[in-house]
Amino acid sequence: MHYTRFKRHGDPQRTLTAPEGAGLDFLFASLILDGRECIEWPYSRDKDGYGQTYYNSRVTQTHRLVCLLAHGEPPTPKHQAAHSCGNSSCINKGHLRWRTAGENIAEKEAHGTKLVGAAIPSSKLDDQKVAQILSLKGEKTGRIAGQFGVTASTIRNILSGKTWRHVVR
């Protein structure tokens, strides 16, 4: 519970909700600012640390709402509100812009916020195990998969270089 509070609110002790309208007041006030520093969303966050607020009868990601209000509609429905700063809870309009998924991933890689390997919470493997898998190349993928508790397709993806590319081959 404390970890969830910390991820969502930045404080493991926080249990109170904000007064009604406080989040939107903060958001609209941030649109006036022109500073270079990140503006941290102090209210509710989703499991990935992105701010969220209730707007137009639904829960919305705050960075996407700020990007919409500051820069207009996205060029296509597939465009994402991307952070140039790499801070998922930042709502500084100067740090946000519309990007395609590919551009957004490239920016995450550039500022080191893209999760790879063992940093991905659902990962069953780590760099050492992947190195062991790579040393077993040539053996049956099903047997290797059973040995490491993953699927054969996971092993094929590792061996082909589709995943875990950062591990030295």
Quick description:
By secondary structure, the chain is α+β, with helices and mostly antiparallel strands.
Describe this structure in words.
The structure is a single chain. This protein is an alpha+beta fold. It folds into 2 domains: 2-110, Homing Intron 3 (I-Ppo) Encoded Endonuclease, Chain A, CATH 3.90.75; 117-160, no CATH class. Helices cover 37% and strands 9% of the residues. The protein is built from 7 helices and 4 strands, in the order ααββαββαααα. The strands form 2 sheets. Strands 1-2 form a two-stranded antiparallel sheet. It has a two-stranded antiparallel sheet with strand order 3-4. The longest helix is centred in the middle third of the chain and has 10 residues, at 62-71. The two termini are 40 Å apart. The mean pLDDT is 88.
List keywords for this structure.
single chain, 169 residues, alpha+beta, Homing Intron 3 (I-Ppo) Encoded Endonuclease, Chain A, 2 domains, two-stranded antiparallel ribbon, two-stranded antiparallel sheet, 37% helix, 9% strand
Structural topology:
Layout: H1 2-9, H2 22-30, E1 52-55, E2 58-61, H3 62-71, E3 80-83, E4 96-99, H4 101-110, H5 127-135, H6 141-148, H7 152-160
Antiparallel strand pairs: 1-2, 3-4
Helix pairs in contact: 6-7
